[in-house]
Sequence to fold (332 residues):
Amino acid sequence: EPRNRIPIIYSLEDNERIVMKAKLLIPSQYRSSFVPTVKVFYDNLVECLEHSPDISLSVYENAREFHNDVADEEITYHTKNKDSVNVKIGYLPDHFYIDRSGFSGWSTLANGNWTPLYSDEKANERFNVISDHYINNNISKYKQNDSTQGKKLESGYVSIFTQIPTDIVSHFMPVRWDVFLKSLVEEILKANPLEKIVIKRHPRCSDKRMSRTIYDIQNRYGKNVKMTDASIHQCISQSRAVFVGNSGVGFEALLHLKPVFSFAHSDYHHATINTTLDNVGNYENQIDAFDEAFRQKIRHFVTYYLDSYMATYEPDRIARRLNDIGFFDTKK
Fold:
């Protein structure tokens, strides 16, 4: 069970053992009930560092006090600072970034290489366990409608998942999100006028431009385009293909072994069809070319990503990831 207390200004002092001073900023999301796993993660992160005899740890909730302190290592949330340990909740509610460069398209993985963690047989077994857990239990970062609450969907469509236009990862988008969505729908229907498209809007998006664009799309292409509030997993499972910018839904679609068309840089680009609006007209051929070799690459990437690169909120996985990035090697 997570601890109830908020660890404000907690310090370890052991002059004979301390070799490194670290400071940690508790994010506002710590108090949010929207994604409660953030609190669990931070409670366990603090506990992990408290139990390291070679670290003097100071924990802050006040950003000014945090930035005024001097430390060998600083741990920050939702950041992409080269001088920090960047922490952020990942695409799944129980997995977290601990990265020297950032998250999503700024992460070390986004701009580096990876190698399979398991043999083909082991990767397949592990992938099936992972995908079954999230899909069968309808688990996503944000609470989803169950399969009976969402609007009924007929299978065989392509799905588009939008993002919040002001989300920092939209920096990697080729154009503004409302412009992108309109262009993407037009290009898909230009290539296949009979295509059925299902659009799921980000649950926290209230952008007026996006609202107007969606309204215009429905008016113009109502026979082809449907909006849905169905569960992410329901929507993905009945899709032939998934179109995203660099949304976390793109990673979730990999759990379904779907062809994912990605238009913006991310860390899961290693397992997607990375394309541009100019190339959308070729999407049917790319779906047809999506074969078992591609699916096997997805299995290997997902198992590497979740079992090696990401941390969970469990203390041993947090400690392992901190060790992987050399956190405990930092000296005064």
